[in-house]
Hints:
Elements lengths: L11 H14 L12 H4 L13 H8 L8 E17 H4 L14 E17 L4 H5 L3 H25 L1
Antiparallel strand pairs: 1-2
Helix pairs in contact: 1-3, 3-6
Protein name: 1-acyl-sn-glycerol-3-phosphate acyltransferase
GO molecular function, one term: acyltransferase activity
Keywords: Acyltransferase, Transferase
Amino acid sequence: MGCFPLEKPEHILWTFLQQASPFLEHNHWVGVFIVRAQPMVNLTQPLAIGKFYKGFAHLALWTSVKQAAPRLLAIASQEKIVHSVIPLRWLGLFDPSEPRFEQMGWHPMVIHRCVIVLVGHSSWITQKQRNYQGKQIVCSITKTCRYEIARLLQGFKDKI
Length: 160
């Protein structure tokens, strides 16, 4: 699948960019869970959107691939059952970079009875955006992607 672990939080963005870029340069997809582990540790309300991890916008701007475009996916669950079964600290063995796996408590095991994957539009990165060096463009890309995911989830909600 091309998965790779991320480094410690202080190096996570740079390492992520270094590891993900070759995948894009070889015409492979890079999947990024842009809300990181937050929904795994603290369950969210249905159709809620968590805080975005900033690395996905940086990757889209930083890669040498000219046709890079974040394609947004939202995973919407209609029905789920939650059990607390795995100590959070145990998960730190698999991902030592995730600070949430250092806390006490249990990781919920979620059984989804019906899941729908919603596919959004590609958000093409323009040359003007690539040339801009600042937080404003990262915030703009993040805001656009957040809006698109909210639109996908709202469309899903309207159909159920």
